[in-house]
Amino acid sequence: REREREDMVTWVFGYGSLIWKAGFRYDERLVGFIQGYRRVFYQGSTDHRGTPAFPGRTVTLEAFPGEVCWGVAYRISEEDEKIALEYLEVREKQYDMKVYLDFFTDPTSAIPAVSGVMVYVASPDKDLNK
Predict the structure, then answer these.
(1) Beta partners for residue 32, in sequence order
(2) Do β-strands 114-121 and 55-76 pair in parallel, antiparallel, or remain unpaired?
(3) Which EC numbers characterise this protein's activity in its record (predicted)?
(4) What is the pLDDT of residues 67-89, one digit of tens each?
(5) Does 115 score more than 90 pLDDT?
(6) So which residues are the catalytic ones?
(7) Cα(59)–Cα(79) distance, rounded to whole angstroms?
(8) Distance between CA atoms of 95 and 24, rounded to whole angstroms?
(9) Closest Cα to residue 37, out of 7, 61, 1, 57?
(10) pTM of the entire structure?
(11) Are 118 and 102 in contact (CB under 8 A)?
């Protein structure tokens, strides 16, 4: 059955290190994918790798029709939401955008497992993300 955001819970999609190291409490973890995006190492980072002159690379998503990106979706309860989102805002600070997408667990189904999964992404402007 499709899970809606109205369930008073937050869903967050992890496609990089969030896959294996969430760092926050969650009630459910689903393996699956989002559509229309691909994983790329375009995001510049100086907070835990690289320098201001030579930023390191971290993964982000690029909108790309026909592509899918596999990862995990975490269900965060209303009780844990504030602490989890505060943690994620610090951890994911290099990503300047959030998008809300459908998340699928079954590649043969057109019906998403969850609608409105929050995804942290970097601006598509590669000059801003050097």
Answers:
(1) 71
(2) unpaired
(3) 4.3.2.7
(4) 999 999 999 999 999 999 999 98
(5) yes
(6) 92
(7) 29
(8) 18
(9) 61
(10) 0.83
(11) no
Position 112: which residue type?
A: P
CA torsion through residues 94, 124, 53, 49, sign? positive
Q: What is the residue type of 42?
A: Y
Q: Which residues of 87-109 are buried (b: 16+ CB within 10 A; e: fewer)?
A: ebeebbebbeeeeebbbbeeeee
Cα(80)–Cα(74) distance, integer angstroms: 12
* Nearest-angstrom CA–CA distance, 26 and 46: 28
Q: Where are the domains positioned within the chain?
A: 40-67+103-130
Joined tokens for residue 45:
């980072």
Q: In sequence order, what E strands does the chain have? A: 10-14, 28-50, 55-76, 97-103, 114-121
Q: pLDDT of 41-65, one tens digit each?
A: 766 666 667 777 877 667 788 899 9
